[in-house]
Amino acid sequence: MKVTIKDIAREAGVSVTTVSRVLNNKVDVSPKTRQKVLDIINKLNYNPNSIARGLVMNKTYTIGLIVPDISNSFFAEIAKAIEEEIRSYGYSVIFCNTGNDKKRERESINLLKSKQVDGLIGAFSNASKEEIIALNKSGFPVVQIDRLVEDSQVPSVVVDNTVSGYLATEYLIKKGHKRIAHISGSLDTNTGIRRAAGYKKAMLENGLVVEEDLIIEGDFSQESGYQAMMQIMEENKDLTAVFAGNDMMALGAYRAIYDLGLKIPEDISIIGHDDFTLASLVRPALTTMQQPIYEIGELAARVLIDMLKGRKNKEPLIVVNTRLVERSSVKTIH
Amino acid sequence: MKVTIKDIAREAGVSVTTVSRVLNNKVDVSPKTRQKVLDIINKLNYNPNSIARGLVMNKTYTIGLIVPDISNSFFAEIAKAIEEEIRSYGYSVIFCNTGNDKKRERESINLLKSKQVDGLIGAFSNASKEEIIALNKSGFPVVQIDRLVEDSQVPSVVVDNTVSGYLATEYLIKKGHKRIAHISGSLDTNTGIRRAAGYKKAMLENGLVVEEDLIIEGDFSQESGYQAMMQIMEENKDLTAVFAGNDMMALGAYRAIYDLGLKIPEDISIIGHDDFTLASLVRPALTTMQQPIYEIGELAARVLIDMLKGRKNKEPLIVVNTRLVERSSVKTIH
DNA sequence: AACGTTACCGGAAACGTTTTCAATATCATT
DNA sequence: AATGATATTGAAAACGTTTCCGGTAACGTT
């Protein structure tokens, strides 16, 4: 049923080679026959088979994208950026959702390689570290986003969470706060560790003490933010501000504070991290560190494209900056 | 560099055919040679080329997904559901983001067909109506989500927005409200039209009058919800409730009401539609009509799988129900 | 008229698989 | 030992493209 290049050739009375030539805008075909072929193509509604083409050219114009959770707005936004950028170069993207499952992550890598993708972008966990490094060493184009496999020489685009955590905390300090708590993200993720490290660094460098019971570990979820906030408030009545490891937890903290009958920012100031959609929508609007999410996706795509084109990228590590977005959840203390 | 089935065959001292057989778990190969081949495969780290396989089998085990905006949580969640469901059947998904651009929508369809996807799931606009219908008629597996191309016989899974709008409005009425406004979504989308129709039907059937200046058209965006609410309040001081065409606009209405110095639900009750993530996070928590988003994706995937397996689906239209989620944004009037 | 260029075209191999068909090896049965 | 059945194997075609290499036609130059 499917119309192939052979059908076109037969119908137009030319060889397959010639049809291929007009398909690819090659020279060596007269205007007349080109037109004739074009007409037939149109008439028969012919659509070239990329699979066959991919087989001979050893190139599929498809890349793979591996994310833990596409329904997480962070990754959804990145996916969008990648798709739009890479499409403009004629590529499309197959995406795999791992659900943070290491096994599925490895399966996905194999699946995508099997599907002959030309390159890979992913937020990989440390579990796939060797695989990624091997891939990269073998010359296969991979770029990492968000998460960092260290000392690996595999191109990555990430934010520097240490300085971002530092900046957030420093902002609070500059606003006059001294008793500042931190609700950290999971401390088995680089992200969580780094932001906490930035918090400590800022405290120390500004002559404040870091008290261990002012740091509570959450897991980036709203509920964990709520619990952490409750726990902190129980023991530290004199607290004036908290830096939440992400906006989701900040929102949990919001709820806890309301439930305690307190007000933001009058009683407690809060700064978050990420600037997800809700941050500007919630009341009081959340002051937070904005990640340039779309830019991360765009950059990752661009780096990959460079590699696909065989261009050597000099700097494997691209660090993008977060930006403080001042809204209404932090008050100045005099 | 890439190791192929031929390399395995040579190394194992058997034919390509035999290797193919063990690859596909066919009978007709002795345990001894099977093991030998398996060993070599393992040693050489061989990964079959799906592209080549796809060419001969005329099946790629890949489907296409076309959405207007993957960074919209609704579609992100659907994408996740589809990927997870369809992966369990051995398929993967290429996704295209159209940005609501009709041209890109058509391009995407062609691209995906060119990549020989086995099927297509999409939230298509009316612009691609003929194309979708033609595809379906030709026997190519397509299923529509969210948006409905009417009278087309192409399998769709959608919510019935008319009854959903009806239910939302009816709830308000049952709570004792009489002066109820509606901030509609864009009235050039079926979704917007239907929900508004449901609103009117509920009003009429309950003996209330529908006043045209109590219906204001928004465009599903937060800002439009804000503007619409402001406009309504200017002219209708005696209003007690509003049904917002989606949660995003409900949030805009929240802001407007706060800016007016009024309180929810004491002064004005609000019901939304969709139950997106923020709905439960915002204060007061938003009462809304919940769409079973994950289920929509799952069902769409399942319907497609059925078609891929050649099973004939009897009922082209699958309607899923929305569910009222009562929270704190509507008060009872006595 | 002979030759050299240039423009245009086609045959066939190749890409990495699956599958059809036929061939061979093995073994039990007589 | 011959036969038949069964288990195991391989050669080659096919899938729909691109590309290499060569060939013919047309035309201008000498």
Structural class of chain A: alpha/beta
Task: Report the portion of residues of chain A in β strands.
Answer: 15-25%
**What is the CATH-assigned architecture of the largest domain in chain A?**
3-Layer(aba) Sandwich
Number of individual domains of chain A: 3
CATH topology of the largest domain in chain A: Rossmann fold
Order of helices and strands of chain A: HHHHEHEHEHEEHEHEHEHEEHEE
How much is the average pLDDT of chain A? 93
Number of strands of chain A: 12
Provide the low-confidence segments of chain A as ranges. none
How would you classify the quaternary structure?
homodimer
Distance between the termini of chain A: 79 Å
Give the gist of this structure.
2 copies of one chain form a homodimer. By secondary structure, chain A is of the alpha/beta class.
Can you put this structure into words, describing what you see?
Two copies of one chain form a homodimer. Chain A has helices at 5-12, 16-23, 31-44, 50-57, 73-87, 102-114, 129-137, 161-174, 190-205, 222-235, 247-259, 293-308; strands spanning 62-67, 92-97, 119-122, 142-145, 156-159, 180-184, 215-217, 241-244, 269-274, 287-290, 317-320, 323-325. Chain A has 334 residues and is of the alpha/beta class. The first copy, chain A, has three domains: 5-48, lambda repressor-like DNA-binding domains (434 Repressor (Amino-terminal Domain), Orthogonal Bundle), CATH 1.10.260; 60-158 and 293-319, Response regulator (Rossmann fold, 3-Layer(aba) Sandwich), CATH 3.40.50; 161-292, Rossmann fold. In chain A, strands 2-1-3-4-5-11 form a six-stranded parallel beta sheet, sandwiched between helices. In chain A, helix 1 crosses helix 2 (16-23). The N and C termini of chain A lie far apart (79 Å). At the A-B interface, helix 4, helix 5, strand 2, helix 6 and helix 11 of A face helix 4, helix 5, strand 2, helix 6 and helix 11 of B. Strand 2 (92-97) of chain A pairs antiparallel with strand 2 of chain B. The structure holds a DNA duplex (30 and 30 nucleotides).
